[in-house]
Design brief:
Blueprint lengths: L5 E8 L4 H12 L17 H15 L9 E4 L3 H13 L6 E4 L16 H7 L1 H10 L12 H18 L2 E10 L1 H11 L4 H10 L7 E6 L7 E8 L1 H4 L16
Parallel strand pairs: 1-4, 2-3, 2-4
Antiparallel strand pairs: 1-5, 5-6
Helix pairs in contact: 2-3, 4-5, 6-7, 7-8
């Protein structure tokens, strides 16, 4: 029987985006809507986000070439693809395949997109009530997704990784979004709702924060968490660390 998983799997959140910056500005001003002209899929990195992605790339470049990623799969959202491109260029990974995979896309917020918490309370108070009653793991806003919906598509993604990117010489880098990082932890570590929401509540996933899994040293065919939400690639270069959420409300 062949190997089920790659030897190493990194899951990285994109660098700081222009949307993160606009959301912070809206919240500070007490606004109900976030001033973002683009579709969510088209929101680019901020200047700092580009710096963070480049620092992450240099962190990979400092690795032994035999331990660097052999495949990069990215959310198709502009901010994630820009992060992937910078990591590839700075990380001596230009010969590594980079593919967009829509299953890594951001959680869809539906009618709540581009609204602050104040905006949701004003325009969709019933959604705030439903979320409070159901909890964010199960709440699905109209036109949007719940965490469970995201998990369902990520199950398929993990099947693809197992089928096409497994083996002792395979090392996979995933570049995506905060909720994707958390939902992959839920799946890979066989967590339940309470445990993953406790991890989420403890700290936000940093922009360009690195979560890494490695094959079990005991010979079992399972991936074990090696590090979660590490910002060492940024700190080592003196690049500012940011932990700004993408969601219109805590997701």
């Amino acid at each position: 029987m062949g190997a089920r998983w790659p030897a190493r799997l990194w899951v990285v959140r994109h660098g700081e985006s222009a949307g993160n910056v606009a959301r912070d500005a809206a919240n500070r001003a007490g606004l109900e809507r976030i001033d973002i002209g683009e579709r969510d899929v088209d929101v680019p990195l901020s200047p700092l986000g580009h710096e963070q992605a480049q620092a992450l790339g240099r962190w990979f470049r400092a690795m032994d070439p035999a331990t660097r990623p052999t495949t990069i799969l990215s959310s198709p959202y502009v901010r994630a693809m820009q992060t992937s491109d910078a990591v590839r260029a700075e990380g001596a990974l230009l010969d590594v395949s980079l593919r967009a995979d829509e299953r890594l896309r951001e959680k869809e917020f539906g009618v709540l997109n581009k609204l602050t918490r104040a905006g949701i309370a004003r325009y969709y108070p019933e959604q705030a009530e439903q979320r409070a009653a159901l909890g964010k793991f199960y709440h699905r806003p109209p036109g949007g997704e719940s965490w469970c919906d995201v998990i369902l598509r990520l199950r398929s993604l993990l099947d693809t990784i197992s089928l096409h990117h497994s083996g002792p010489d395979a090392r996979v880098l995933l570049v995506a979004h905060q909720v994707i990082v958390l939902c992959l932890r839920y799946l890979l570590e066989d967590l339940d709702e309470d445990r993953i929401l406790a991890i989420d509540a403890a700290a936000d996933v940093a922009n360009c924060g690195v979560t890494e899994y490695r094959l079990s040293a005991t010979g079992e065919e399972r991936l074990c968490l090696a590090t979660y939400n590490s910002v060492a690639p940024l700190v080592n270069e003196g690049t500012p660390v940011t932990t700004k959420r993408d969601s219109p409300a805590p997701t």
